[in-house]
Amino acid sequence: MNARRDIAAGIRAVLPAVLAAAPFGLLFGALAVDNDFTVGETVLMSASIFAGASQMVGIDLFGDKIAPWLIVLSIFAVNFRHVLYSAVIGRQMRAWSALQRYVAFFFLVDPQFAESEKRVESGRPLTFAWYMAGGLTFYTTWIVEGWLGASFGKMVDNPAAYGVDFLLPIYFLGLVMGFRRRANWLPVVAASAVGSIIAYVLVGSPWHVSIGALCGVAVAAVIGAKPAGEAVE
Questions:
Q1: CB-based contacts of 41: which residues, under 8 Å, 6+ apart?
Q2: Rounded Cα–Cα distance for residues 39 and 15 (Å)
Q3: Crossing angle of the two packed helices 52-63 and 2-34, in degrees rounded to 10
Q4: Cis? peptide before 206, omega within 30° of 0
Q5: Separation of alpha carbons 189 and 2, rounded Å
Q6: Angle CA(34)–CA(63)–CA(24) in degrees, nearest 5?
Q7: Dihedral sign (CA 20, 16, 144, 138)
Q8: C-alpha–C-alpha distance, residues 41 and 122, integer Å
Q9: Which pLDDT tens digit goes with each residue over 100-151?
């Protein structure tokens, strides 16, 4: 019974993310075929990379015929934050088997991390059943959305012009705001934002994503290293 409850709760937790990501997944599929990907290649990319921003970067770079190693490095730069996610959430997976952890980390996308953190913060255990129910739901719908976008995207002229992809950044902003009650939230977020903006101007995309994340981590480390009781301005 507990496993069934966890599965149902995991699916419910990820549904807002599924709805928010749907336009983005459809847009990716449409843009992929517009950049000469086949439907099969589009679905394979969604199934193997499973990261919207990295997939968008990938189709742009593939279209420019850039060296494969540079494409891999660029996608790693965009996805570097997932290394930080695994370091944080991995502490809640100590009771899981090694195989369970390896499988779980593949599904550790932004909404999954945020929902897992909220569950732990509420005092409920992070079970494998709960985690995988949400992860597989998001993964399956993401692949289907890419397939639909690739299959019917040619019917829409210039799909990027509709701007429906703005829903996902808004959802991510909501995730960030959900942690606003945590100690030192503001300086960490501010450092990430400023670092990302400066990096975008000086270095460019996609490196600004990882640089912004590292700025936030650096500020969090400095604040955390202060002796207990010392005020933080």
A1: 32
A2: 26
A3: 20
A4: yes
A5: 36
A6: 50
A7: positive
A8: 41
A9: 999 999 999 988 988 998 898 888 989 999 999 999 999 999 999 999 999 8
Query: Between helices 39-49 and 128-152, what is the axis angle to 10°?
Result: 160
pLDDT of 49-87, one tens digit each? 888 877 887 787 776 667 777 777 777 777 777 887 888
By three-state DSSP, how is residue 126 classified?
Answer: coil
Say how far apart CA 51 and CA 156 lie, in whole Å. 23
- pTM score: 0.73
DSSP state of 182: S
Alpha-carbon distance of 51 to 45, in angstroms, equals: 9
3-state secondary structure of 183: coil
CB 64 within 8 A of CB 193: no
In the block, tokens 């060296």 appear at 67
Residue whose pair of structure tokens reads 């190693």 in the numeric block:
69
Q: Token pair 């909404």 is at which residue?
A: 111
Residue reference for tokens 């690739």:
150
Residue type, 47: A
* Phi and psi based region of residue 183 (left: phi greater than 0; alpha: psi -120 to 50; beta: remaining): beta
Q: Which amino acid is at 195?
A: G
Interior/surface letters 78-93, b for 16+ CB within 10 angstroms, e for the rest: bbbbbeebbeebeebb
